[in-house]
Amino acid sequence: MTKKNNQESFFSGWTAFGIVFFVVFVILIIIQQLVENFGGESETASENPTFVGQSFKPAEHEQFQSQNQPENNSETENNSETELADKAKNLNDSNLSEEDKQAILEQMASQGEKQISQGDYQAALKTYNEIISKNPNDENARNRRGDVYQNMQNHSRAIEDYDVAIQLNSDFAIAYCSRAKSFIKLGNYEQAMADLQKAVELKPDFVDAYKNLSICYRVLGDNEKAQYYLNIANSLPNQ
């Protein structure tokens, strides 16, 4: 009797253990399924972010910004030039202070410098024409418009502007040197050398003036003086 009871207790214990093991196994499988389902939904959400009121696709958004950035810069630049042109039209406004007028002219001069550096000589010519029409005695505008004409190979017109710049400022070394370059292009070496001598007199470290003097003397066959001025130019720091 005792032996039978012991056997029943033994089998009952294993049965209970098996049931518990099975229940735990089932619970683990359920938990694993839940974790996998939750993880999959999270990954899907992170790959496709959505916001209330709009759809958002990062790659397309970045591409749009990149493609349109130069356009926006160009549009900003055009707006700035238009605004400056509008201001220029109001320079004769009696309500505009002299300080405001001078500020506008300085803005226009900066715009002209930029146009020259970009090689947009027609635009630069238009800008300096506008400045000179408002202030005929602007020696710098006269000189820079001369540079514009020189770059356009219109050396006669360039010399006319350099003439006025020098009349307005007899110590304008850069204008003398620039006028000399146009004289050289026209084959007037004697006048060019006179201007260049004046330029180095006013500005003893004027490298370009010495180099152009060297060119003039070499063309005229005086190699000794040509080398002399070239040596001076080479001894000075580049400006």
List key phrases describing it.
80% helix; 239 residues; 2% strand; 2 strands; two-stranded antiparallel ribbon; 10 helices; mainly alpha; single chain
Structure notes:
By secondary structure, the chain is mostly helical. It contains ten helices and two strands; from the N terminus they run H-E-E-H-H-H-H-H-H-H-H-H. The protein has a two-stranded antiparallel ribbon with strand order 1-2. A hairpin with a 2-residue loop joins strand 1 and strand 2 (about 55). Helix 4 (about 120-135) runs antiparallel to helix 5 (about 140-150) and helix 7 (about 175-185) runs parallel beside helix 9 (about 205-220). The chain is elongated, with a radius of gyration of 42 Å. About 25% of the residues are buried. The model is unreliable at about 40-70 (pLDDT under 50).
Helix fraction? over 70%
N to C succession of SSEs: HEEHHHHHHHHH
Give a count of the beta strands, DSSP E runs of length 2 or more: 2
Structural class computed from helices and strand pairing: mainly alpha
How far apart the termini lie comes to 121 Å
- Spatial strand order of the main sheet: 1-2
Percent in strands:
under 5%
